[in-house]
């Protein structure tokens, strides 16, 4: 009888430990963000950008124009030309081809003067940021740069439960970041690099 009771007690203890492990696994925080080098990419023009088009020896067709919400631009002699998703060099070559119907051997330079970028290049900040918004990605942009741009976090933010959602090898992954450690404690190790397309999620504290 005592042997049966001992086996029964051991079985209950093992079951309780298994349930506890499952509970811990369900509440586990996302993994820490890996310290990887930023991919080398050229800036892609996006809707909302401003592009300054300079046509050599033809000032009458040179001007600064906005990129419309549909991603296209309109300039003298060139109507509805796709600009979004292209580099400034690619857009310059496309404008040269369009102007070749009216100007002999046009030479075009495109300078981007207002930066928004394509949606895939932007960094979005949602939740308990002082000013949630989408930001144009800049080379070597860090988590601290993003926090400065959005004015920090609100008093209701659970900073150390924040996370970054990022696409890695075509798959969406979630990584834990420590905003409280960075902002309040000055822990520079919590200042991780950002990547184009990242989404920073700042949850609300429960208490």
TrEMBL record:
Keywords: Cell outer membrane, Ion transport, Lipoprotein, Membrane, Palmitate, Polysaccharide transport, Porin, Signal, Sugar transport, Transmembrane, Transmembrane beta strand, Transport
UniProt domain Polysaccharide export protein N-terminal: residue ranges: 38-113
A Gene Ontology cellular-component term: cell outer membrane
Residue ranges of domain SLBB in the record: 123-201
Cellular compartments annotated: Cell outer membrane
Key word Ion transport present: yes
Keyword field contains Lipoprotein: yes
UniProt GO BP: monoatomic ion transport
GO MF term list: polysaccharide transmembrane transporter activity; porin activity
Major location (coarse): membrane
Superkingdom of this protein's organism: Bacteria
Signal sequence, renumbered to the chain: 1-23
Pfam families referenced in this protein's UniProt entry, alphabetically: Poly_export (PF02563), SLBB_2 (PF22461)
Membrane topology: Multi-pass membrane protein
Family: Belongs to the BexD/CtrA/VexA family.
Descriptive protein name: Polysaccharide export outer membrane protein
Species of provenance: Pseudoduganella namucuonensis
